[in-house]
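User: Sequence recovery, please. Input:
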């Protein structure tokens, strides 16, 4: 049984709470433009954009970023910010 990617990311954040600010910043950077104008009125990335990101990274739109790879990406973005 496959779990929701959000649950995997939440578990990763709970295991490594120092990554939570980086996770929130990354989520804000990936938000859709004018997100407040369309349901569900949440700052989430567009599905087409995420499908493209997954296809270019993993070769298929159906793959989701593994939590450990997301953690490495977040650490990298923080090191680039410094």
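Assistant: Recovered sequence (82 residues):
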């Amino acid at each position: 049984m496959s779990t929701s990617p959000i649950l995997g990311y939440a578990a990763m954040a709970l295991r490594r709470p120092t990554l939570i600010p980086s996770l929130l910043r990354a989520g804000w950077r990936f938000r859709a433009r004018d997100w407040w104008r369309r349901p569900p009125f949440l700052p989430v990335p567009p599905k087409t954009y995420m499908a493209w990101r997954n296809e270019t990274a993993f070769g298929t739109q159906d793959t989701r970023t593994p939590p450990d790879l997301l953690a490495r990406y977040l650490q990298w973005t923080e090191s680039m910010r410094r």
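The first helix runs from residue 5 to 15.
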